Amino acid sequence: MATSVRLIHPISGMTKIGYVGFSWTYMFFGPFVPIIRGEVAVGFFHFILSSITFLFFHLIEIFLYNGQYMRRQLTDGWQLDRSDRNFPYAAGKLGIMN
């Protein structure tokens, strides 16, 4: 099950919700999830890989997608909200040192 955690952009102060764990949305909607989240190139790449591997990539990606998305957000400057109650769990799953 995916666990939600709040992300904060330190410069703009904007917040959004990210998830760690199993991705139900990716399971049902596949490569459309990255496209809807604004990652068109990632969605296209996932579509190609799922097609080539006859959906085997899709079966693996449902367990990995949320973590990959969160890591991309963190490298783009977003930070986990330390006041979020799920911060310790998300930080542990993402390998972030406190």
Structural description of this entry:
The protein is an alpha+beta fold. The chain is 53% helix and 14% strand. The chain is built from 5 helices and 3 strands. The two termini are 24 Å apart.
Average of per-residue pLDDT values: 95
Helix % is 40-55%
Give the terminus-to-terminus CA distance: 24 Å
Structural class: alpha+beta
**Number of beta-strand segments:** 3
Report the β-strand fraction as a percent range.
5-15%
Oligomer: single chain
Q: Catalogue the unreliable spans.
A: none
Number of domains: 1
Globally, the shape reads: globular
In this structure, how is the largest beta sheet organized?
Answer: 3 strands, antiparallel
Strand order of the largest sheet: 2-1-3
Report Rg: 14 Å
| Count of helical stretches | 5
SSE sequence, one letter per element = EEHHHHEH
Key words describing this protein structure:
single chain; 98 residues; alpha+beta; 3-stranded antiparallel β-sheet; 5 helices; 3 strands; 14% strand; globular
Summary?
The protein has helices at residues 24-29, 32-36, 40-52, 56-75, 87-94, and strands at residues 3-8, 15-20, 79-80.
